[in-house]
Amino acid sequence: MATITPTKAPRDASLATPGWVRWANDHRKWLLAAPAMIFVAALIVIPLVWTGYLSLTDTEGSVRADSEFVGIQNYLDVLSDFDRFWPAVGRTAAFTIVALLFEVVLGMAIALLLWRPFKGQKWVRVAILMPLVATPVAVGMMWRLIFDPNIGLANQALGWVGIAPQPWLSGQYTALPTTIFIDVWQWTPMVVLILLAGLTSLSDEPQEAARIDGASTWQRFRHVTLPLLMPTVIVAVLLRGIDALKTFDILYATKGRGGGSFHEVETLNVYAYGLSFDYNEYGVSSTVLILFFLIIIGSMWALTARRKEAKR
Amino acid sequence: MKPRRAYQVFRVAALTFVVLSLLAPLIWMISASFKTNVDIYDTSKALVFSPTADNYFKVLQQANYVQFIVNSLWVAFAATVASLILGVPAAYSMSRFNMKKSALVVLMARVIPGVSLLVPWYYVFANLKMVGGSGVLILSHMFVSLPLVVYIMMGYFDSVPAELEEAALVDGMTHLGAFRRIMLPLSVPGIATAGILSVIFSWNNFMFALVLSDADTKTLPVAIFDFVGYASIDWGGLMAAATVVTVPIMLIALFVQKYVVSGLTAGATKG
Asked: A200, B11, B25, B161: most buried, per Cβ within 10 A?
């Protein structure tokens, strides 16, 4: 008596399929992943290696121009350049740290205000989304009008409360803080959304337990909510930090090339862009970019290590 | 209870302040786009003025903005579709086979400063006579959208139970058949999320088009600078141009809010 086992049907089906289909299925892991990987390799890894090579040459004017291999000379030059390089490092660090600090503290406060449901919450969320999706260059232009020393709304508003007008973006020392303010306006909502997602995923039980034990609101936040939320806070800092280090659009829109005539807002990214496309100093700009890249990787690595610690 | 009530009052006041600070500048930008330059310079007409659409005529007719809108739409659309075609299968494979290192290579693209890629790109694409064309812009925008798609879709595929696929295999489907007929239809919300975010980021991207486009192929964020002269700024035109770029994307975000939020917060709460 012939018995038909249930496993027989699929086996027959697979035998009936042509060879290339079977081959494709056997190699599906790389077949599916390879196109994206090759694209990334061609467009990112090769240029990056090339940048690394250029940083060891004295290439300028054109990438095709005759150039000499100068070893680490560019690195020595750049690292001893206290005129443009180190101030740019300082501005990048100041911009990123101050902006992140405000964004995380404000973001946390707003996320806590939004945490428990209330009527109209939907509309507040819509308002929070708007700066986030607005085009950064347009946002820069918008604030440029508002912060205009003569016709801007900012100085008008100061006038109503009797404070003297400020130079804002056009002042040598007020330009960087003003661009930090713009960054905080646009990106605090991002931190709010991430922290809100983290808060919503927390279970209620630790909160309840602390409440029954008589913990005050502040104690519950400090000793229950914050430690549980810490991994999410670090993700927010990581995501926002990478972008803040690389800020370009609002700086270029508000101050133009070279971060203004006194390089008031010239961060590493703006400096490297200027070296590449305004001065065609490809060798030096590649050196600055490699150092910049190392700074980004270093800060990410430090934060990721911190996150592993927080999760323990 | 008294303290609870006080907190509710504080909460409403604080949130009102937050909403106003976020929206007032945008409203100011839009209202300035309906003012004449004379009215913009006259601080007494800050809130009360007779609106005019002249700035928009200037932007759309004289400044050739229709062309730039088409450019921006085409680049955002093409870069997104291409990134989805490359990124969704890759994300599936990376999620199912736990290819952490390969994923890291793709995600590195999020970390690298764009300027470091622009010099080699410019050289290669200039030799291929592609600089100034829209093809090179689409490729460069994929540098932003592909990692985004892979990141969001990996998280999505991680959350789809593997049992669904195994059931399809028992029914006689091949692995690739199960991916096409079971996993892809199931992941439509994820694909929508990734696609919408990719369009937003491509539409807003400035630096790549600044270097790689020419007068005919530039996108809206670059075209805005036409209104900034060396000596003076055409504020009315500039605000109209800024409004033309930002308002469409804000409206889209309004209608697909859920997807935008889930895309922006993807992976933030998982291990």
From this structure: B25
Kindly determine whether residue A142 and residue B26, on different chains, have CB atoms separated by under 8 Å: yes
B229 close to B148: Cβ distance less than 8 angstroms:
no
Residue B132 has, within 13 A of its CA and on its CB side, a CA count of: 7
Q: Domain locations in chain A?
A: 18-54, 73-311
Q: What is the ipTM of this complex?
A: 0.93
- CB < 8 Å to B264, chain A: 132, 190, 193-194
Measured in angstroms, the CA of B267 and the nearest CA of chain A are apart by 9
pLDDT of A56 > 60? The answer is: yes
Domains and CATH numbers, chain B: 49-264 (1.10.3720.10)
Fold of A73-311: MetI-like fold (1.10.3720)
Q: Do the beta carbons of residue B172 and residue A10 sit within 8 Å?
A: yes
Q: Which one is predicted more confidently, A76 or A116?
A: A76
pLDDT, tens only, B185-216? 999 999 999 999 999 999 999 999 999 998 88
pLDDT for A88 equals 96
| Residues in chain A within 8 Å Cβ distance of B92 | 32
The confidence band for A312, taking pLDDT boundaries of 50, 70 and 90, is low
The rounded distance, in Å, linking the Cα atoms of B99 and B150 is 12
Contact A113 B15 (CB under 8 A): yes
Contact A285 B115 (CB under 8 A): yes
A172/A265 Cα distance (integer angstroms): 9
Q: Is B110 on the interface with A (CB under 8 A)?
A: yes
